[in-house]
Amino acid sequence: MIVQACLNGARPDGFHPRLPLTPEAMAGDGASCVAAGAAELHIHPRGTDGCESLAAVDATVHAVRRACPGTLIGVSTGAWIENSAARTRAAIADWQALPDHASVNLSEPDAPAVMDLLRRRGIGIEAGLASVADAERFVNLAGHGQVFRILIEIGEQEPDAAWEVTDGIARVLGRAEASRPVLLHGFDAMVWPFVALARQRRWSTRVGLEDGQHLPDGTTAAGNAALVAAAVAIFRAEPAG
Question: N or C: lower Cβ tally within 10 Å for the chain?
């Protein structure tokens, strides 16, 4: 069970005063999150124009590694970043500063090819499952048991719907005896309910400005490190009763 810090995601400039968008900002923010208890970092590198870019992975990973030696670093391969399967694959093939792992959304058509490329490059795979259909697709892929981790990442904002999708994904994984480590997380209104559920099920979780900017009491966090500290406190709390 770990807490991963997701520093920025696709959030736009202005989402939060301390949203890190440059390699230097991500490096400094990542170090603060590690100091607050984060075991890993998940980042979305940005180009000089501030937009997400797979071509910016080298410079960003270099900067974050210098600031956070020994910390596992993951990046996104989301199809929207390059808006082209060919450009996505070409960018990954050109990486020189390799991240430790990369997330792949099973809802995306080119996911199997991206996963194969990551394996050939020696990069771990976080298999992102946002629906029961994603889970079914995942367990039917050859080599699904060799991914680094399974991400159950729930976009639903109503609790009953969110629990239903989560339980449905878990049932599919259970039937397939998919025994890889699981990281569960939600977005915005569901960030903290899923941190609590992850602790209950002894899964890992993640928090950060990619997923939401509010603390458990509803106030706006000072930044990523405050969000990490709150999640770590939940994970370390003594069980009730």
Answer: C
pLDDT band at 187 (very low <50, low <70, confident <90, very high): very high
Of 148, 10, 145, the C-alpha closest to 76 is: 10
pLDDT tens across 57-70, in order? 999 999 999 999 99
Q: What is the mean pLDDT of residues 113-129?
A: 98
Task: Taking residues 131-145, report their average pLDDT.
Answer: 96
**What average pLDDT does the structure give for the chain?**
97
**Pairwise CA distance, residues 229 & 216, whole Å:** 11
- Locate all alpha helices (DSSP H) within the chain, ordered by sequence: 23-35, 57-67, 79-82, 85-94, 111-120, 132-139, 159-175, 191-201, 224-236
**Tokens coding 133:** 């259909």
Asked if residue 152 lies in contact with residue 134, where contact means CB atoms within 8 angstroms, the answer is no
Give me the DSSP letters along 136-200. Answer: HHHHTSTTGGG-SEEEEEE---SHHHHHHHHHHHHHHHHHTT--S-EEEEE-GGGHHHHHHHHHH
Q: What pLDDT does residue 49 have?
A: 93
What angle do helix axes 23-35 and 224-236 make, rounded to 10 degrees? 30
Q: Is 195 exposed, middle or buried (0-12, 13-18, 19+ CB in 10 A)?
A: buried
Determine contact, residues 231/3, Cβ cutoff 8 Å.
Answer: yes
Angle of CA points 28, 66, 98, to nearest 5°: 110
What per-residue confidence (pLDDT) applies to 50?
93
